[in-house]
Design brief:
Rossmann fold, Hypothetical Protein Yjia, Chain: A,domain 2, 2 domains, 3-stranded parallel sheet, 10 strands
């Protein structure tokens, strides 16, 4: 038999399967990590049964929270008189669970299959515009108290089924050492409570070249670097999505870890230590 060359592998799970263990396998098993790189996680949501499923099956909420993109299906089966209202309510709820994942519809897929698939599979670690899209989605759904929170550089929200999200925003570039310490601390202290983390980081030693952070559950992808910022906004923006960790505790923990990492890095640098290695 001849050899078959391929560029992508698609893994389809059963309806209520946990995506986390699959992601962990590819991030932690050396053989798989050396052969494959995790791409996008796509969750399909049945518009007819979604409300009951999200209420009765916590794993379905975790699926949405872990997703990079969401495809809304069976919208054509909704009653015409209530279709628009139910779609809007469902999209709003999905956005509360995961603000960084774009929601597309099966009707869009039928009309423009190539375009929709590109959006569903877009990898922010390679495409500055894809990174811009999910950061805009995360930061654009801020609550009415955003102005008050902005002076502290963060917002926190509580979601259903114990889902909470938090945005860490910093105007000043982070030293490489501070970023390394922060990522190590996050993996150690948030653990299994951390469903997803995504972000663009302005690293002081790498001007004009943002670092992309992606992680699932307690494991983080190796950092990748975009060749340029997707727009003029060069702030550090990191979005955390957790489960069973109250929004207030999430905010306090991430803010504390960020502060400790920054102070420790500056202390080491002021003590004349060796130039820290670029994070990988």
């Amino acid at each position: 038999a001849g050899e078959v060359d391929f560029n992508h592998v698609v893994i389809e799970t059963s309806g209520l399967a946990e995506a986390g263990p699959i992601l962990q396998a590819f991030l932690s098993e050396p053989t798989l990590e050396g052969l494959f790189r995790m791409g996008a996680v796509v969750a399909t949501v049945d518009a007819v049964n979604a409300e009951a499923t999200l209420a009765d099956h916590p794993v379905s909420v975790r699926q949405v929270a872990l997703a990079d993109s969401i495809l809304l299906t069976k919208t054509d089966l909704l009653e015409p008189a209530e279709r628009a209202a139910r779609k809007a309510a469902l999209i709003a709820r999905l956005g509360q669970i995961n603000r960084t994942a774009p929601v597309l519809e099966s009707d869009d897929l039928a009309a423009d299959p190539v375009g929709v698939m590109r959006k569903l599979m877009a990898d922010p670690r390679e495409d500055p515009q894809a990174a811009k899209s999910w950061m805009e989605a995360a930061l654009g759904a801020a609550p009415t108290h955003e102005a008050a929170d902005a002076e502290h550089g963060h917002e926190a929200h509580a979601h259903d089924s114990g889902i909470a999200s938090f945005n860490l925003i910093r105007d000043e570039p982070l030293p490489r050492e501070a970023l390394n310490l922060l990522l190590t601390s996050l993996e150690k202290h948030l653990g299994a409570n951390l469903l997803r983390v995504k972000g663009l980081v302005n690293v002081r030693e790498e001007p004009g070249q943002p670092a992309v952070i992606q992680g699932a559950q307690h494991l983080l992808h190796n950092l990748t670097w975009l060749p340029e910022w997707p727009d003029e906004d060069q702030r550090t923006r990191i979005v955390f999505i957790t489960q069973d960790l109250p929004a207030g505790e999430l905010e306090e923990m991430v803010t504390l870890l960020d502060r400790v990492a920054h102070r420790t890095a500056l202390a080491r640098m002021n003590a004349g230590g060796a130039e820290p290695a670029r994070p990988i």
